[in-house]
């Protein structure tokens, strides 16, 4: 490593369990809605391989665990044989360049409508409280949500099992591990947050009860593929999709401590400053207490740039830093950070379009940048 690079803390090696990372710049999970009919497509081979560096960690876009897990058009799944087969060449391409690839597995819960559900049924959730219609992240379309159906207690083990099967399938597809999506107001978060969860059974009420669903998923997934291949993403401070909590710090700390019992590989937390999924604001809260409470690798995300990311690593507030929008627009982001090179600007208008090239694989590399 050059003298210049060694002063760039993001570009220093890190051992994450069995994985030898050559730097700390992680590809954050990014939904791109180009997996037609929930099947990963060949254009994703180029997209992910462009963002791969030797010893770099990539987290896939959110990937559905079952046929009730979807709430957006053309997001990938990992519950059918066809989907597993379609992931294989994508994962292979990342491995061919020496990358480490985790599959983010999710269930959207009530962030859906009956059009995405089998037989037009109601989306499932921890509650039957509906979401109000919301402007989509593209700032144009309004998402309409169908009133959810609150899961009965006896139905919960089946949903937990879907996460187990999805993790097994992700391993079958060749992924190095899975990241359980417990953030951003989706199903797991709908159980954890007290402004959503109004249950009276053992999955509602106390902090311990609200976190039970998440921890049951962690347990079965860890038993299935090994805790050293499991991470979780959490956003205790966020209130996207009307999923706020009255005491996010207590929730974050409870989860960070509880995760230690399962010995999972990493905890990936979204910074409290993220006001929406992609907009940052000034905020007095910090993830440091959770960082200190959790014994494994701690990944932070949300509004980071090169300077800020270097600082977080230098001050030991994080082991790794995940970058979303910057990595989306700069396939060679780790190299640009190493060289302190200028960055391409992201184009929000093409985040979620279905084009297999535009805004997806056509962001230039440093050498070819104008
Ligand atoms: C286009 C887009 C898609 C996203 N999709 C996901 C996703 O599938 N799963 C997830 O956990 N977060 C998702 N996020 C949030 C990002 O992972 C990240 O936390 C967020 O962009 C803030 O980080 P940044 O400031 O580096 O962009 C998405 C964000 C964007 C902009």
From TrEMBL:
Parts of the chain that traverse the membrane: none
Cofactor: FMN
MF term (GO), any: FMN binding
InterPro entries named in the record: Aldolase_TIM, OxRdtase_FMN_N, Oye-like
Pfam families: Oxidored_FMN
Protein's UniProt keywords contain Cell membrane: no
Record SUPFAM superfamilies: FMN-linked oxidoreductases (SSF51395)
Top-level taxon of origin: Eukaryota
Keyword NADP attached: yes
Similarity section: Belongs to the NADH:flavin oxidoreductase/NADH oxidase family.
Protein name: 12-oxophytodienoate reductase 2-like
Organism encoding this protein: Punica granatum
């Amino acid at each position: 490593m050059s003298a210049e690079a060694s002063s760039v803390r993001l570009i220093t090696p890190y051992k994450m369990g069995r994985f030898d990372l050559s730097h700390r710049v992680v590809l954050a999970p990014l939904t791109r809605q180009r997996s037609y009919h929930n099947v990963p497509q060949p254009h994703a081979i180029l997209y992910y391989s462009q963002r791969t560096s030797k010893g770099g960690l990539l987290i896939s876009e959110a990937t559905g665990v079952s046929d009730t897990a979807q709430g957006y058009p053309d997001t990938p799944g990992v519950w059918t044989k066809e989907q597993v087969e379609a992931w294989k060449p994508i994962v292979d391409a990342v491995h061919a360049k020496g990358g480490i690839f985790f599959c983010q597995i999710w269930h959207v819960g009530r962030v859906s409508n009956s059009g995405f559900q089998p037989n037009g049924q109601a989306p499932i959730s921890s509650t039957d409280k509906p979401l109000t219609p919301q402007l989509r992240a593209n700032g144009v379309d309004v998402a309409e949500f169908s009133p959810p159906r609150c899961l009965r207690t006896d139905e919960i083990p089946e949903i937990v099992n879907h996460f187990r099967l999805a993790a097994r399938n992700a391993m079958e597809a060749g992924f190095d591990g899975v990241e359980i999506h417990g953030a951003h107001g989706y199903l797991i978060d709908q159980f954890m947050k007290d402004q959503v969860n109004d249950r009276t059974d053992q999955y509602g009420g106390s902090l311990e009860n609200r976190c039970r669903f998440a921890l049951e998923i962690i347990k079965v997934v860890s038993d299935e593929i090994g805790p050293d291949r499991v991470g979780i993403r959490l956003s205790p401070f966020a209130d996207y999709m009307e999923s706020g909590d009255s005491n996010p710090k207590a929730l974050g700390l409870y989860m960070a401590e509880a995760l230690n019992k399962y010995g999972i590989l990493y905890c990936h937390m979204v910074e409290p400053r993220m006001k929406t999924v992609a907009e940052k604001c000034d905020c007095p809260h910090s993830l440091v207490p959770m960082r200190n409470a959790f014994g494994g690798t701690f990944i932070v995300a949300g509004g980071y740039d090169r300077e800020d990311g270097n600082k977080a690593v230098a001050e030991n507030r994080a082991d790794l830093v995940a970058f979303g929008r910057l990595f989306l627009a700069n396939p060679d982001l780790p190299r640009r950070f190493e060289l302190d090179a200028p960055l391409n600007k992201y184009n929000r208008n093409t985040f979620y379009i279905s084009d297999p090239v535009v805004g997806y694989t056509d962001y230039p590399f440093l050498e070819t940048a104008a």
